[in-house]
Each structure stands twice: as structure tokens, then as C-alpha cells.
Amino acid sequence: MWKSLMSSGRQATRPNCPSHSAAIIPRPATVRRNFIAAPRLCKQPPDTRDFDREALDPQPSEATKTGTDDQIAQHDSAFDPSNTSPESELEATEQEAKSKGKQGTLNMSGANKEANTWRGPQEGGPARNADKQETSKRGQPNKRRRVEVKEDGTHVTYR
């Protein structure tokens, strides 16, 4: 009887699987994902104006802030081959506009030297510290130490 108890005790302490094999983790054979075809709720209709190649949209371009390309093209001086410099084109356009009683359309173009020059950093900006003579300077805060400067320029700090 003791032998049967001892052998059953040894069997209970032994692992059921051999020690050299790794533990088996149960995993599903395949992962299922449901696919649902639903319409998008935030879908917007395409804007047909953006893609119509026949539609004309005369807006001021980047080079001419006050006049559209169509307005500039209406001037005869725009197609004059004898005027090739921007300054002469600007003068001719201004004279043509004055003769018709209108304002020139090339006021803010690249041909206008006054509008095309580099502006300083303070020009047209906010007036910061306008009442102060000096702005704040770099420096170190007072650390409550007494500093003595000798005549030769060296200094000694005392606590």
C-alpha cells in the first residue's frame, strides 16, 4: 500500500508534459473581421466650378493686388512690344487710365518700385515700447552677493 501511495505521489509531482517542450498557448485558427459597406456620412458634393476648364474666374492674382488680369489685359500698353521695361509699362498704363478717367490697375504690381521695395521691420508694425528709450537688456539677476572689482580688472566675489 505504501508503494502505491509513493508511486502516485511521484506521479503527481512530475509535470504532465515533457520539460523540453514549450507551453502551448491556445490561439484561434483565424481572426474574423466583419466588413460593413456603409456610405460616408460626411461626403460632400464636388464643386464643379473648380474643375470647369471653360469657366473664367477673373480674380486678382498674386502679382497684381488691385487689378485683375483681365483689367490689365484691356490696356493697349500691355501688348505694346516697344514697352518692355516694367517702369515704362507702369507709366503707359497710368497715362492710359488717366485718359479714360479711371485709376491705374498696376498700382500694386511688381512694376511699382514703391510697393515692391523691402520694408523695415518696424515699418507698418505695432509701436512696441514707444514710450521707453531702451528695451530690456541682458543681464544676470542679483544673487545677493557682494562683488569687488580690483584696479587691475579682476573681481572677487564674496558671499
Report on this structure:
This protein has 159 residues and is mainly alpha-helical. The protein has a domain at 62-106. Helices cover 25% and strands 5% of the residues. The chain has five helices and two strands. It has helices at 2-13, 48-51, 69-73, 86-100, 113-116; strands at 146-149, 155-158. It has a two-stranded antiparallel sheet. The model has no long low-confidence stretch (mean pLDDT 68).
Spatial shape: flat
How does the helix and strand content classify structurally? mainly alpha
Rg estimate, integer Å: 43 Å
Beta-strand content bin? 5-15%
Largest sheet: 2 strands, antiparallel
Biased composition (Polar residues): 1-19, 61-71
Region (Disordered): 1-25, 38-159
Biased composition (Basic and acidic residues): 46-56, 148-159
Short précis:
This protein has 159 residues and is mainly α. It is built from 5 helices and 2 strands; from the N terminus they run αααααββ. A two-stranded antiparallel sheet has the order 1-2.
Question: What brief labels describe this structure?
Answer:
159 residues, two-stranded antiparallel ribbon, 5 helices, 25% helix, 5% strand
Question: What is the topology?
Answer:
Blueprint: H1 2-13, H2 48-51, H3 69-73, H4 86-100, H5 113-116, E1 146-149, E2 155-158
Antiparallel strand pairs: 1-2
